[in-house]
Each structure stands twice: as C-alpha cells, then as structure tokens.
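I had to read the description of the data format several times before I understood it. The format is easy to grasp once an entry is in front of the reader. For illustration, here is how one protein appears when written out as sequence plus structure tokens:
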Amino acid sequence: MLMLDQLEAAMALRDRYTRWRQSREKSAQESIATRFCRVFESHGVHRNQIPRFFGHGLTLEHVQDDASLLPRLEEPLLEDVCERFAVRREWLDGADNKAHPQHRFYKTPEDFSSFIKNLREINPDGDLQGVLIAPSDARSDASALLILQETVGWIGQTSIYRYHLCDDWMFAYWKARAYLTACVAIAWKHAVYIHGVRTVSKEIDLLIAGETLLGWRGEGISAIGHSKWYPEYMALRPEEFLAGLDPERNNFGVRSGLQLWLDLQRNGFMATGLAMYEAGAVRTLFESELAKRVQTGKG
C-alpha cells in the first residue's frame, strides 16, 4: 500500500509530466519570436520588461506581439540572448528540443575547476551558486544533476539568473560519486555553495533530458525545494560519501570509492577551502574507513 507522501509525490510527478508533454507539443508549433519571449518570461523578465533589461534597440512597440518582434530578430540579437541565458541556438530556432547545453565533468574535475574560473572571469559581479539534485529512490542506475545558477542582471532589485546543467552522474556508482564529490569540493573552494535537494529519479531524468527551459519564473533554484542534505559532507565524512553507494560484488564499490576519494584528495581535488576542517584530519577519516572495510569486508 502506498504511503500518503508517496502517493502525493506520484501524483505531483504525473502532473508535471503531463504539463511537460503539453509544453513539448505546444513548443513544436512555436515561432522564433514566441520562443524568444518565452526565454525571458521563464527567467522572470516580463515581456514588457524585455527592452529595459536586454536593450538592442528594442522598444515596447517591438515586443507588443510576435508580428512586431519578428523583423527585429537579427543575428547579433539572437546570439546575445542565447549567451545571456545559456540557451542553445538550435532550440531558439525551433530545430531542436534541447533547450540548454549540457556539461559533463565525469572523470575530469580539472575541467570543472576551469569552468568555474571561466564563469567568474566572464561575469565577476554575478553571484554563483548551485544545487545538487540527488535521487530519493533506491534505483541503482538513478542519476544526480548539478545545476549552477549565475546572476546575469537585475530588474529593479530582483536578480535574473542563467543556468548551467552538469549531468552524467550515476549517483550510486562509486566512480561517479567520487568525481561528483570532487566537483562539489572544487565549487566550495571557489566560494560557490552547492545546496542539496532530493527528489524521485524520474523528475531528475526530465531535467537531464534537457528539454525543460529552466528559470522557474525568476524564483531560481530555491523553487526546486528547500535544502534537505549537504553535498559538501561527501568531501568531509566517509559515512556521507558512502550513503546510498552501490557496494557491488564483495563490496568492491565501497572499497574502490574510498580509494578513489583518497586518490583525488592526494591530487588536490577534495580541498574545500574550509578552514574548520583540516585536510590531513579528513584524509585520516577516509583512510581509517577504507582500512576497516578491507579488514572486515564490511560493505
């Protein structure tokens, strides 16, 4: 028998999926002018605020309807809106359903570090934070999703954001867990706080598919849900790093995950920059956990 909270979650997921299907069918018939405005509105910029926020010589007269806007949509303007909101040009053209570029840093934490530094250099005044959405169900192949949120402007005192999808994280797989932990630690080191949220894997899969235009009507990543867990603990506490990890046969996944954590730490990828945690002391915790698992065979 389904518990009440499970039933409510299932109904919410069904409703969201229905809305997603309806939105997909509707978007297939959209003009480029309609998609142009939808980009802004999904990020919290009302149609009438587009000229004030975006410039490019646009006026209220131009944005009053799609017919008036279409002649103004020249190449520099279209390229700029894609860059401003990290939206794929193919999606804006109506040629593809994937709205946002997808970034993958599995096995390449050094590239994630470069990615963070580049965002900082290009937009030094923009606040940068993130959310790690982890699966709440026990599906062994369920994926996590890291979304970075970057401030790209303001309407009055209201921040306007763009989003960067970082996917390809099979959450229960030891290798993916270790590299994901390294990325969370790297973010912390660059003063980018990663919030933690859990939800059913099917909802995460919809976001990973890349066909959802992000924005949450300007509410930002806080609209996904309140922080339910602390991803940085995976870089600090062995029990948090191992929580929900697939042990695999003979506990190979547990031992290999701990060893990879230690290897990444040795190469500087687990340094969170938090003064309250001494790197040597944290490493000792993981070394002790690995020694215990090897000695007892406990998964």
About this structure: The chain is about 45% helix and 15% strand. Residues 1-7 have pLDDT under 50 and may be disordered. The two ends are 30 Å apart (CA to CA). The longest strand covers residues 143-155.
